[in-house]
Amino acid sequence: MKSATNQSQGMLLFHLTPLQTFAIGTLKVKEIVPYTPLTVIPHSHPTVLGAASLRGETLPVIDMAKAVGYPPLQPDELKNCYIIITDCRRMLVGFLVRGIDKITECNWHNIDAPPSSLGKHVFVTGVTTVENKLIQLLDVELLLSKVFPDAPGSLHPVLTDIEREILRPLKILLVDDSAVARRQLSQALDSISIPYFIATTGSDALEMLKHAADAGAPFEILVSDIEMPGLDGYELAFEVQNNPRLNQAYIILHTSLSSEISVSQAHQVGAHEALTKFEANELIHAMLRGAEKIKVNQPDAQRA
């Protein structure tokens, strides 16, 4: 029996305003450095303050407060600010914030979905409390998608009619807590007329998988984010692989992190593939590999 990954992810707490504390998962954080003078990038997004050269890397630095709708940083504030360097969506990006609080341990199962009253387009993917303070977990992927939109070609896969017909009969479940990631996944499959189901949490996905198996129509391909509050992608893969009713599903985990660690740990918990998101053709070809494995394991007579 495989064991679930023991990698723990904490939360980095920081401030965009004097009163409200925000957080991101520490797996996305490469480094935290004091403010350093920036080089202006011509024709850049209004929230991009400039570029910083750090450890031999040149990276854009975003005013995170302005990017999520709070008052922008003022020149006289900069000397007291910090840059959070993140590894997300295959790029290094710095986020300038008004202050760093601390890194704290986190039970990701205790993070709740944001209240529906906040609307559908907020940059918050979850809420929790630390020392009786409300903490809002920021959706870094949504933020970056607004500042650095994906190239149109990366969202729409290209495949042959034969490949499309291979995928169309399969029962596919997409799982992601990020609204922007779900939209990307949906657009990719919609553009090639591939049907699918969606879950917004790992727990909901596991229940959908169980109900489908009980009904005699199990899911055959599971595509799940790794970094999710509650039941994360690692744990979901572990649960699926160690349940005889579910473990025929081909598991594709995807992550906004560019780390090889994420990929190796995905394999440890039983995932068949791990991708850094998002590139539509990579995802579709991973699904095609899953379809081939399903065909080998389930002869035509059995699938009829």
From TrEMBL:
InterPro entries reported in the protein's UniProt record: Chemotax_regulator_CheV (IPR024181), CheW-like_dom_sf (IPR036061), CheW-lke_dom (IPR002545), CheY-like_superfamily (IPR011006), Sig_transdc_resp-reg_receiver (IPR001789)
Residue intervals of the CheW-like domain: 8-149
Protein keywords: Phosphoprotein
Domain of life: Bacteria
Coiled coil stretches, renumbered: none
Keyword Phosphoprotein among UniProt keywords: yes
Positions of modified residues (4-aspartylphosphate): 225
Native organism: Photobacterium ganghwense
Gene Ontology BP terms: chemotaxis; phosphorelay signal transduction system
Protein name: Chemotaxis protein CheW
Entry keyword DNA-binding: no
Occurrences of domain Response regulatory (ranges): 171-292
